[in-house]
Amino acid sequence: MRTPKWLALALGLAAIVAVGGYVSTGKMPAGAEEAQLKEKEQPATERRTKFIAAFNKGDAKAIAAFWTEEGKYIDEGGEPVRGRTALAKAYGDFFAKRSEVKAEVKTEKIRFLGKDTAIEDGTFTVQTKNAPAHVSRYSALYVREGGRWLIALLKEWGADASDPAKLEDLAWLIGSWESDGAAAQVRVTYQWSKDKKSIRASYTIKNKKDEKTSSGTQLMRMDPATGTIRAWTFDSDGGNGEAFWAWDGGRWAIESNGTLGDGSTTTALNFLKRSGDNAFTWRSVKRTLDGEDLPDLGPIKVKRVKAEN
Predict the structure, then answer these.
(1) What is the rounded CA–CA span in Å between residue 108 and residue 214?
(2) Together in a domain, 137 and 280
(3) Three-class HEC string of 223-244
(4) Is the domain of 126 the same as that of 145?
(5) What is the residue range of 279's domain?
(6) Of 51, 69, 256, 257, which is most buried, counting CB atoms within 10 Å of its CB?
(7) Between 184 and 305, residue with greater pLDDT
């Protein structure tokens, strides 16, 4: 699935943090070997500091100034964005819609084509509040103008996951778990299917306000069409739902949607973060009921109550 345009623009933006540390001094010789380049790496430079400050501040105009006057950005399958004015507007739109954005850059290779041109390849990760991290690859062409290194062209595309999440990565869940909160008591048991191609879960939820108990089952397995972990849930009230699990580097992000027994529709983005072998925390955000926003839930601590047989 292609990275959304608003996110791709933010990803492209992050690339100059890495290259700024290498070339902002203007002292890098043409044709430098990668080993020599690593030795000369400066972890903090004035240029890098200024860029991070502009990004954290959401200063679209300052960010666009890191590009050449006619700098061009191209994402996978999207319309190119050309020129500082258009880039400033695009970043301005991005910052107006998103907050608390953090970016991480991993430079894989820098090639100097001459004393005033360089190409950088790598990956970058963008994490926004209450959303899974997104990883993309990039290739940037830099030129030196008036002693400053600027982006002339940046291309960005979806990263090919070299080690995608597998169902086996959730093997630690096998067993029984329980949370005892102010509103409800929840117990869930995870078991492998006989062929170990699925994980089956059964759960009960006891509402402490009216003492009513509901139950349900869930089936998790790899979806061969997408190569991702997919889950289907069926509850005792006649409701059902589905969810997609993705690992974002520090926690599981679970995008879910469903239909309740009365026909109401629900959506949520859930986060599951492991805390050792016998505990995890659960948080649910971006919750809706028939299109209306609901309050966030959690974090809720869940503890293991029965080890795997």
Answers:
(1) 51
(2) no
(3) ECCCCEEEEEEEECCCCEEEEE
(4) yes
(5) 167-306
(6) 51
(7) 305
> Among 134, 158, 182, where does a domain finish?
158
Q: Are residues 10 and 153 in the same domain?
A: yes
- One-letter amino acid at 256 equals S
Q: Are residues 228 and 279 in the same domain?
A: yes
Is it the case that residue 55 has pLDDT exceeding 70? yes
Asked if 104 contacts 30 with a C-beta cutoff of 8 angstroms, the reply is: no
Residue 37 predicted with pLDDT over 90: no
Evaluate the CA torsion angle 256, 260, 263, 265 in order and state its sign.
negative
- Residue 272 · residue 281 · CB < 8 Å: yes
**Based on the structure, what is the number of domains in the chain?**
2
Residue 3, pLDDT > 50, answer no
**What is the CA angle 137-230-11, rounded to 5?**
20
- Please report the DSSP string for 116-182 in residue order: TEEEEEEEEEEE-TTS--EEEEEEEEEEEETTEEEEEEEEEEEPP-SS---GGGGGGG-EEEEEE-S
Using one digit for the tens of pLDDT, what is the confidence trace for 133-175? 777 788 888 888 888 888 888 888 776 544 568 899 999 999 9
Pull the structure tokens for residue 116. 């005033």
Instruction: Please indicate, yes or no, whether residues 174 and 138 belong to a single structural domain of this protein.
Output: no
67 in the same domain as 174? no
Closest CA to 20 of 156, 146, 144: 144
In angstroms, the CA 178 to CA 187 distance is 4
pLDDT confidence of 21, banded at 50, 70, 90? very low
Last residue of a domain, one of 113, 128, 158: 158
